[in-house]
Amino acid sequence: MEEGSGGFANRSLVMLLRRRPMGAALPSTAMGLQDALAFADDDGEEVVLDAEEADTLLALTGGLDAATVSACPQCRSRVLACVALADLLEDAPPHPRANEIRALADDAPTLHVYVQDLKTECTHTKWRDPGAAEWADALDDVLDDPPALR
Ligand SMILES: [Zn+2]
Questions:
Q1: Which residues on neighbouring strands pair with residue 68, listed in sequence order?
Q2: Distances (CA, A) of 70 to 15, 21, 34, 93
Q3: Rounded Cα gap, residues 121 and 123, in angstroms
Q4: How many angstroms separate the alpha carbon of residue 16 from the centre of ligand 1?
Q5: Quick one: pLDDT at residue 1?
């Protein structure tokens, strides 16, 4: 009766902590429909959450507000402070992906990690502070679909 429910096959991909060498472009097919929120550092290390994981994480952490340095007013993309993020995750109720995100924050080469909202189509034109440029610059190296921000 239900056709086209093959989307579940993507779940296993989403569950993986994807690590890949710098500069290696991720095929767009691997960016499944269910991917909702990507955490990335300046090295291109990345943790991708599906919609449910992203929603729970944001609910458990108060929208990551306490760790947010700068954020797009129109979507969930933001710049997070690593130390504050690690603290926030430590204080928050357990989340299945929290350890991966904490590891990302701990290993990040800079003081910031970058969150990209993969579900909201947003050009971030209203995001106008230095964090926006830093965010776009960092993710430009990571994503094969760089944000349209200049
Ligand atoms: Zn945005």
A1: 80
A2: 27, 27, 25, 24
A3: 7
A4: 25
A5: 52
Residue 26 scores a pLDDT above 90: no
Predicted TM-score of the model (pTM): 0.73
Strand, helix or coil for residue 12: helix
- Ligand 1 centroid, distance to 78 Cα (angstroms): 8
Nearest to 96 by CA among 62, 50, 65, 63: 50
CA 2 – ligand 1 centroid, Å: 34
Ligand 1 geometric centre to CA of 3 (Å): 33
Work out the average pLDDT over 33-51: 93
DSSP secondary structure, 111-137, as one string: SEEEEEESSS----TT--SHHHHHHHH
